[in-house]
Amino acid sequence: MDLALHIDGEWITDRDTLPVINPATEEVVAHLPLATPADLDRAVAAAARASHTWRGTPIADRTRILLKAADLLVSRADRVARAMTLEQGKPLAEARGEVLRVAGALRWDAEDARRAYGRIIPSAADTVLSVRHEPVGPVAAFTPWNFPAGSPMRKLAGALSAGCSIVIKASEETPGTAVEIVRCFAEAGLPAGAVNLVFGDPASVSRQLIAAPQIRMVAFTGSIPVGKLLAGQAGNRMKPCLMELGGHAPVIVCADADPVQAARKAAAAKFANAGQVCTSPSRFLVHESLWAPFLAEFTAAAERVVVGNGLATGTTMGPLANARRLEAMTELVDDAVEHGAKLVLGGERLDRPGYFFPPTVLTDVPEHARVMREEPFGPIAPIVAFTDLDDALRIANSLPYGLAAYGFTRSSKTAEKLITGFEAGILSINHCGGSVHEAPSGGVKQSGWGREGGPEGVEAYLITKRVSHLLAD
Ligand code: NAD
C-alpha cells in the first residue's frame, strides 16, 4: 500500500507517520504520512485557488473528467478492494462491491450536476428575475473507517460535481482506499488543488480546516458526539454543514409478516460489514406470535456466517475494524446480561489474533439496557417481543436518533402506519436494502443534517443566488 498526502496536485510522503493495522492479523501493513499545520494551510490555499479554476471549467469538461475518474476506479477495482480489506477487514467481495458502487455514485452525481437548473421568474417588463445555483466554494470533509470508499466518495462526488474544490481528511485507520480514489481523480485530469487529501490528528486537523476563512462548507460522516463538535465549530463561523451521523435502526416485524423471510433479510443486513454500518438494523422488535420462528431462523442465519480474514475464500464476515469496537461489543453484551438479557449466540471475542467478534444474539433485553439505547455498530442483535404495534413504534421512536428503520408486514394499511409512524430519514418495508445513487440518504433528530445521494447529494454543495436584473436601455 503506497500512502501519501495529496496537496495542490503533489503527492507527499516525507512526513512523520502513523502505522496502519490490518484488523484481521493486528499486523502493521503500511505507514501513513501525517500533514503538518503548514501542509493544511497549503491544502486550503490550493483549494481556494482551484475553486475558481474548477467552477470556471465548462460543465461538459467537468463531467468528462469525473466520468474518467469513475472508469479508472472500475478498472482498478480489484486492487482498491484488496487495500480496503487489508486495512478495514471486510470480505473482499464486499469491498469490491463497495468500490463498484461508489464508481456508480460518482457517475450519477457527475451526470446530475448537468441538471443544476436555475429558473427565470415572470417579473416587471424591464427586469429579468432569475434564480441561479452556484458552487458553495471550498469544502472541508471528514470521513470514517467503516466505508473507506463509500464515505469519501459521497463527499468527493457531490462537491466536485457541483463545481466545488475539497480538502478531505479520510480515516487514518483506512487511508489506502482514499489514496487510491484520489489517484483516480488526479489521473483523470482534475486541476491541481481541486482535491486535497490529508491525514493527521483528527481533532487538530478539523479545528484548523473549519477555522480557515477560505473553507465555505463542512461535511462529516461519523459519530454523533464528533458531529456535534464539528457542527459547533462550523456554526460559530456560520458555515453550512452536511452531517451524516449515527442511528440505532429499529426493525418491526408485524404479526402478519413472514417470520422466516424477515429473519433471513434482517440477518443478512445485520452482519454485513460486521454490523459497522450507520443504517444497520440494530433493535429487533418482533410480534410475540412470530417471536419464536423469527428467533430460530435469525439464529440459524447467524450460525451460518463464516467469520474470518476478509482475504480468505469463504469468509462472509471479517473482523471488527479496530480494537475500540471489540471493547465496545464486550461492554454492551455484559451490560445487557447484567440487566437480565439472555445470550443465545456469541457474546465473546474469538480467541485468535485479530479483532474478531462473532454474530451475537440476545433476547429478553430490557429497554433500559445500553444495547437498546446506544448504537452497537457491531454484530450484536437484541431481539425482543412486542404485543401492541403502537408500543413497538413508541420504542422505535424513543431514542434521540432517527437514521434508518425497517418494517415487515403483508398489510398495506399497516405498512402505511409504519411509514408515517417511524421517525427516521430512511425507511425500508419488507426488506433491508442498502442505499442507492438515485435517492437521498440522511437522518432526522440527532442523526444529522442534509442528504447524500439523489439530486440532493449535489444540491447540498450549491448555493442559491437570486438575481434581479433591471435592463439598461
Ligand atoms: P469517534 O467518534 O472517535 O470517530 C468517528 C470518526 O470521526 C472517525 O473516523 C474519527 O477519525 C473521526 N473523528 C474523531 N474525532 C474527530 C474530530 N475532532 N474531527 C474530525 N474527525 C474526527 O468514534 P470511533 O471509535 O471511530 O467510532 C465509534 C462510533 O462512531 C460508532 O459507534 C458509531 O456510532 C460512530 N460511527 C458512525 C459512522 C457513520 O457512518 N455514521 C461511521 C463510523 C463511526
Main sheet specs: 7 strands, mixed
What is the global morphology? globular
Give the strand line-up of the largest sheet. 14-15-16-13-12-18-19
Beta-strand segment tally: 22
Name the bound molecules. Answer: nicotinamide-adenine-dinucleotide
For the residues shown, what is the average pLDDT?
98
Give the oligomer, counting copies of the same chain as homo and different chains as hetero: single chain
Full CATH superfamily name of the largest domain: Aldehyde Dehydrogenase, Chain A, domain 1
Under the CATH scheme, the architecture of the largest domain is 3-Layer(aba) Sandwich
Assign the CATH topology of the largest domain. Aldehyde Dehydrogenase, Chain A, domain 1
User: Structural class of the secondary elements?
Assistant: alpha/beta
CATH class wording of the largest domain: Alpha Beta
Distance between the termini: 64 Å
Which features would summarize this protein structure in a list?
Aldehyde Dehydrogenase, Chain A, domain 1; seven-stranded mixed beta sheet; 473 residues; binds nicotinamide-adenine-dinucleotide; globular; 15 helices; Aldehyde Dehydrogenase, Chain A, domain 2
